[in-house]
Write a structure and sequence with these properties.
heterotrimer, A alpha+beta (291), B alpha+beta (768), C alpha+beta (154), A: 291 residues, alpha+beta, Uridine Diphospho-n-acetylenolpyruvylglucosamine Reductase, domain 2, Uridine Diphospho-n-acetylenolpyruvylglucosamine Reductase, domain 3, Enolase-like, domain 1, 3 domains, 5-stranded antiparallel β-sheet, globular, C: 154 residues, Ubiquitin-like (UB roll), DNA polymerase, domain 1, 2 domains
Chain lengths: 291, 768, 154
């Protein structure tokens, strides 16, 4: 039978010390919306829970449109959805957090938890990738800052990278001028936790051209990622139908869907391309270029 | 006298509502824990079909806190009401994932849970058939090779094909002559999905054998008497030795009217006298070890003349009943005898059969599952109307069964408000106005009619007991109210008859210790049978009461009445409050005269409208009828379907409590919408892959259509209590085919398979 | 492992020892005898166990009991004062319940909603209650009840 200890540190170093002392069977407990389910199913070996919700620094948020923002890992989805600064400067993040259907989940689930679970269908992670988020990690090797996209990719291939590691903050870059981000998702029903397939497109817009383009497709490939070749095509020149078509073709080649019970590979691909076009269209509208 | 009618046909909150909203109601899981409890860790099959080669219980027995591990070596018996085809514990073969194989009895829930995981079952896999179509193939695996030896099997007309447990047929006229008259004949196959009742409260049961050898079972059931009968027979014990009691039921939706895991705890309690054996299903067990809803594979062929006359119908309804057919026999029977839908058709041949498959046994879900039959018929009706270029409303009105028509069954139909229902729903969604399409969005409207036979079991007497004492009037009936409002309905009838305020009447928790001799199996007829039994009981009670008062007052009983809880003499205008009479005695000139507590029983044996020559599965009392309409919007690019408006109307005879009836209708309509669009228990290689509420979608607040209309139609039912016919619980019947017909109108495509997912619509749009 | 915790429960301080395996729902139902919060799916999907944790609705089945040390918890047992809470009364009067298993959870989520938004419209009610399933009623009458209660509040 599982039996584990519980600690509630008030300071980050205490939490790190506890994690490192305990080794692989220590788990970070934030909102618990995923971990508590795993504990009930007794599928993961656990000897210690480190509850990080009472470390003030991890629950701090600083939004600065010029120098960049820093969001504590234990901010809940509800807090982010309701935060005026997030709504103003990172509206897609606020929107994605608000779109998680159950209020009870939004009140508990944290941004850090969403990242560590790393669902390939997460619209919240897609939004973070649009804002080129980075994460601050604390582990045996000390503190390091890594791009979120790298972190997601690495954890996907090796879950054990999360052991003994604490994600303390999410860093978002300064706000670019004339920058927008749009997400379009396909839901089986309005209150679905994650869309089956989604497309996020972000860019800034100067003199008819996209710059800083970011393209993310959720739910199709094994983990969330940016499609930089597609982004390149979008930024090469005026975004006409021909260029958009080339971008879509490029995107199609980068997608490797497999059949799931929710959607066939064929449908996933068709919807990803459709939603990509919808997102580009939405972004143009948002940035005031309806052409 | 005017008082009498005040409490029926009038809305009251349900009588137990306050206890429910304050959290004071006790459901099974809320009962205080018993001392000396053994918790059950249920070991269930991980294979859809396999021989059991061996069960190694040693590692589990060594686990701390484990008292015993019981297998089919220790517990045997076959469950069933009419057909005993469900082993209490799998013996040599498992037939579905989730089938109970062994029980670990332990001192704590945690020990039971961990030790259950240590029981090693070795299997030899057998081929799997998961749909009725697969089970009917010539080379399909045979699920029950020993079928002919099962109790009840011989009488059911099954066994002619390997996996067919029961077969019922209805014929009328001359089918060949019918086809010859038809100008257009359409054939089509339709499929419904396996769904789950998904009541919020899971199943659970606990049992104890007392020192005198009697057994008591506490269970999350709506049908204690039915459980007692089935369990005592399966375990070979005298029914009087077993007492079954229930608490509030947190939703049944059909799955809490039949026996499943309850037999296990009774058997284990017999093996461990003095202990309370306690079994709670977890969520995945709720989806796999108890019941699912049967799925239907329907073949329809119908012929129509250019003038719009339906002249012939041939149907084969193959019911996928899972690994046990018993709970579905009434459904399969009803589909044969009501399988024409509410239409007048002279030449008919219908075959309805129960087909074994390798999934969780099926049980009806809200009514007799006539929803599944109408999924086929109502789509077929639309296709026929289109083929002869006739408006679907006009076509239906032209062909519906009306009072006085001779049915294919041979009986003369009684009057219903079917045509009024159709008018109500077409008006509600403004049927005449063709919806406006937008470039990427197609809109359509669809209709469906339905009828559903109200059936009773062959032993269809119902009994009620009414008691009057200083606590007021207490009614005992045989079935718990799992949410339909049955108990409120009963209280309204009793209060009306007795001339009491509604809050003087209580309906006691159902307990076999109350000793009703003629309990009715939980069935669609409870409004009629239970209602009439209650009326008889309270009328007798009133006679006794009035006689006592009349004797004390020295008056004729004819002059005495009870109005709003006050006993009044019309002759002398003498009056006294009834509660005071119980407290202080009947006031007389010679001082108070003691008023004895009174008890009376009532019985009802409704005369059936139709009883077949078949073995006594059921009889039809009458038909309930209704209509639904839907407006949908379909995204042409993604295939997404959004329901904009939904309307349902049901002829309930007489709505004893109109708002409760409407509440039933709205809830049912949303379940029907779920059936049309989402609900589907998916099996991959025989293994259910979405057996929980995260992956099996039950309609949420956010799924509610912008407009949901519910309408009551009242054409009183002869023989029904105050003309009541139904509580409208089986409304999901209506909605799904209306949605399918609306999608068909929107995009010109016929989706015959439930549910209508975005991807299926997308695929059809692309391919056509 | 056992840990002592104390928290405000419906306005009163309670102290008990809990193991790390216990959820808040277990502690309420089994240790404190408050069975108003219902155990249903037990996996955070249905909302029958909803309670308010520091005024915010949460699934009690997904919160560990040790986590609530120092917090304030409200359950349906704390809703009633001298009289029924307006939401309870409206749920009865508008027939927003059938089997009643979802009712306590729905009442608490609705109470939190009205604390944030005293006059929610239908869409806001639907979205706030999206985490509470009801298999019986079809939701319409529950939405009506929340609206009636919002008007009844002082």
């Amino acid at each position: 039978m599982l039996s584990y200890h519980y600690v509630r540190p008030r300071l980050l170093p205490e939490a790190l010390a506890a994690l490192q002392r305990e080794g692989a069977e220590a788990r970070v407990l934030a909102g618990g919306t995923t971990l508590v389910r795993q504990l009930k199913q007794q599928r993961v070996p656990v000897s210690l829970l480190v509850d990080i919700k009472h470390i003030p620094d991890l629950h701090s948020i600083r939004i600065d449109s010029r120098s960049g923002s820093r969001i504590g890992t234990t901010l809940t989805l509800e807090e982010l959805a309701a935060h005026a600064g997030v709504q103003k400067y990172y509206p897609l993040l606020a929107e994605a957090c608000a779109a998680v259907p159950a209020w009870q989940v939004r009140n508990r689930a944290t941004l850090g938890g969403e990242i560590c679970v790393g669902s390939r269908r997460s619209a919240i992670l897609a939004a973070l990738l649009c804002y080129e988020a980075a994460v601050t990690l604390h582990g045996a090797a000390g503190e390091q800052v890594r791009p979120l996209s790298d972190f997601i990719r690495d954890v996907y291939s090796d879950k054990s990278l999360l052991h003994g590691v604490l994600l303390s903050h999410i860093l978002l870059g300064p706000r670019l001028r004339r920058f927008g981000a749009v997400f379009r998702g396909l839901y089986q029903y309005p209150g679905q936790r994650h869309p089956v397939v989604g497309a996020a497109v972000a860019a800034s817009y100067y003199e008819g051209n996209f710059q800083h383009a970011r393209v993310i497709i959720s739910g199709v490939n094994p983990h969330l990622q940016r499609y930089t070749d597609v982004e390149q095509i979008l930024m090469e020149g005026t975004l006409d139908e021909d260029r958009l078509q080339r971008a879509a073709v490029e995107l199609g080649q980068a997608l490797h869907p497999v059949d799931t019970t929710q959607a066939s590979a064929e449908y996933q691909r068709a919807m990803a391309l459709h939603l990509f076009r919808q997102a580009v269209q939405g972004l143009r509208t948002q940035l005031g270029n309806s052409k | 006298m005017t008082r009498k009618t005040l409490l029926v046909g009038k809305t009251f909150p349900r009588i137990e509502a306050e206890a429910k909203v304050t959290g004071q109601s006790r459901y099974w899981l809320d009962l205080p824990p018993a001392t000396n409890t053994l918790y059950v860790g249920l070991v269930t099959s991980t294979r859809p079909h396999a021989r059991i080669l061996g069960i190694d219980t040693a590692p589990a027995l060594q686990h701390e806190g484990v008292e015993a591990v019981l297998t089919a070596e220790h517990i045997s018996g076959m469950l069933g009401n009419m057909l005993c085809d469900r082993p209490i514990l799998a013996a040599h073969t498992v037939r579905y994932v989730g089938e109970p194989v062994a029980l670990v009895l332990a001192r704590s829930p945690a020990a039971a849970h961990s030790a259950a995981a240590l029981v090693q079952v070795r299997y030899d896999d057998l081929p799997v058939a998961i749909t009725a179509d697969e089970s009917l193939l010539p080379d399909a695996p045979i699920l029950h090779p020993e079928f002919s030896a099962y109790q009840g099997a011989a009488a059911l007309g099954g066994g002619d094909l390997p996996n067919v447990a029961a077969r019922f047929t209805m014929t009328a006229g001359d089918l060949e002559a019918g086809w010859a008259q038809a100008d257009v004949i359409i054939e089509q196959q339709y499929h419904t999905s396996v769904r789950h009742h998904a009541a919020l409260e899971r199943h659970g049961a606990s049992a104890r054998q007392k020192a005198d050898g009697t057994l008591i079972l506490w269970a999350s059931t709506a049908a204690p008497y039915a459980l007692r009968k089935e369990i005592s027979r399966a375990l070979g014990i005298d029914a009087q030795r077993l007492r079954v009691t229930c608490a509030r039921v947190g939703g049944g939706i059909g799955a809490k009217s039949r026996t499943s895991i309850e037999a296990l705890v009774v058997a284990a309690a017999m093996a461990y006298p003095g202990y309370t054996v306690h079994l709670e299903l977890q969520q995945s067990g709720e989806f796999t070890s108890v019941f699912v809803r049967p799925a239907l594979s329907a073949y329809l062929k119908m012929g129509v003349t250019r003038q719009g006359e339906i002249v012939a119908m041939q149907a084969r309804y193959a019911w996928d009943v899972g690994a046990s057919a018993d709970a579905c026999l009434e459904t399969v029977w009803s589909a044969a005898y009501a399988g024409t839908g509410p239409y007048r058709i002279p030449h008919v041949a219908i075959d309805s059969e129960a087909v074994y498959t390798n999934h969780t046994p099926a049980a009806p879900m809200r009514g007799n599952d006539m929803a599944e039959v109408h999924w086929a018929i109502e789509q077929h009706i639309d296709q026929l109307a289109a083929a002869i270029d006739m408006d679907p409303v006009a076509f239906r009105l032209h062909n519906i069964v009306k009072g006085g028509d001779r049915l294919a069954l041979g009986q003369i139909m009684h009057v219903t408000g079917l045509d009024q229902c159709l008018q109500k729903v077409t008006a509600a969604i403004d049927w005449q106005r063709r919806p406006d399409d937008r470039p990427s969005m197609a809109r359509g409207k669809g209709l469906a009619l339905f009828w559903s036979p109200t059936t009773v079991a062959p032993d269809h007497s119902a009994e009620a007991c009414a008691r009057f004492d200083d606590d007021g009037c207490t009614i005992a009936i045989d079935n718990e109210d799992a949410g339909t409002g049955l108990h409120t309905f009963v209280a309204q009838l009793a209060a009306t008859e007795l001339g009491l305020p509604l809050d003087w009447v209580q309906v006691s928790p159902v307990d076999t210790a109350q000793g009703l001799q003629y309990p009715q199996r939980k069935a669609t007829a409870e409004v009629c049978s239970v209602g009439n039994a209650v009326l008889m009981a309270v009328r007798r009670l009133k006679v006794h009461l009035v006689q006592q008062v009349a004797a004390a007052w020295n008056e004729s009983p004819n002059h005495i009445d009870i109005i709003d809880g006050i006993v009044i003499s019309h002759a002398t205008e003498r009056q006294q409050a009834l509660d005071e009479m119980f407290r202080a005695g009947i006031a007389t000139a010679a001082g108070p005269s003691f008023l004895r507590p009174l008890e009376a029983r009532g019985y009802a044996t409704p005369s059936p409208f139709f009883a077949s020559d078949d073995p006594e599965i059921a009889s039809i009392l009458y038909f309930c009828a209704g209509a639904a309409a839907a407006e949908v919007e379909v995204n042409r690019t993604t295939g997404e379907v959004k329901v904009l408006q939904l309307a349902a109307a049901v002829d309930v005879g007489h709505a004893i409590n109109p708002d409760l009836v409407l509440s039933q209708m709205k809830g049912g309509a949303l379940q029907g919408l779920g059936a049309a669009l989402w609900e589907n228990l998916i099996y991959k290689d025989g293994v259910p892959i979405n057996p929980d509420l995260y992956n099996y979608h039950v309609a949420m607040f956010t799924d509610l259509p912008a407009q949901l209309f519910a309408h009551i139609v009242e054409v009183p039912q002869e023989g029904g209590p105050y003309g009541a016919r139904s509580l409208a619980a089986d409304v999901p019947v209506l909605v799904a085919p209306a949605v399918a017909n609306a999608v068909a109108q929107a995009v010109g495509l016929r989706l015959t398979r439930m549910p209508i997912t975005a991807e299926t619509v997308w695929r059809f749009l692309r391919e056509n | 492992m056992k840990y002592p915790i104390s928290f405000h429960l419906n306005g009163k301080i309670v102290s008990l020892e809990v193991s790390t395996q216990e959820t808040l729902l277990d502690a309420l139902r089994q240790r404190l005898g408050l069975t108003g919060a219902k155990e249903a799916c037990n996996e955070g999907n249905c909302g029958a166990c909803t309670v308010l944790l520091n005024s915010a609705p949460v699934y009690a089945c997904m919160v560990l009991a040790v986590e609530v040390d120092g917090s304030a918890v409200e359950t349906v047992e704390g809703m009633e004062g001298e009289e029924l809470h307006p939401l309870q009364k409206a749920l009865i009067d508008q027939h927003g319940l059938q089997c009643g298993y979802c009712s306590p959870g729905i009442l608490l989520t609705a109470q939190a909603l009205l604390a944030h938004n005293s006059r929610p419209n239908k869409t806001q009610i639907r979205e706030a209650l999206a985490g509470n399933l009801c298999r019986c009623t079809g939701y319409t009458d529950i939405i009506k009840a929340v609206q009636v209660a919002s008007r009844a509040r002082r």
